[in-house]
Specification:
It is a single chain. This protein has about 130 residues and is α+β, with helices and mostly antiparallel strands. The protein has one domain: TT1751-like domain (TATA-Binding Protein, 2-Layer Sandwich), CATH 3.30.310. Helices cover about 45% and strands about 25% of the residues. It contains six helices and five strands, in the order H-E-H-E-H-E-H-E-E-H-H. It has a five-stranded antiparallel β-sheet with strand order 1-5-4-3-2. Strand 4 and strand 5 form a beta hairpin. Helix 2 packs across helix 6.
Amino acid sequence: MQTEDFAYIVETENSFDEAVVSVLKAVEQKGWSLFQIYDIKERLAAKGFNQKPLKIIEICSGRYANQFLNKNRLISLCMPCKINVLEENGKVKIVGMKPTMISQFFPEVNKKEAEEVEKDVIEIVDNAR
């Protein structure tokens, strides 16, 4: 398995903070809900560890979540969807997990259904670029 199999990654010319704001705007424009934002650098710094900037942004589409949970409630282990903003080698990247991975773990979700969700996630990442 390659990184491209489970992650959609784009570089942005925006600063780290601008990229986070862009993701939040793209999520809102797509009509998805924002659940939580985790500042990993800040949380690890509080424990004495040094990390480059990394924020994990949890998002959800009620329609897709309901559809998948009605098939198998254990799919909740893969929820909510996440889009990460990170700094690596001097570049700011926006990364979304590809929801088509869900169909590999839960056969009751056909790939076409997961592709619909993935299309939205990729659109959000591209619009935040």
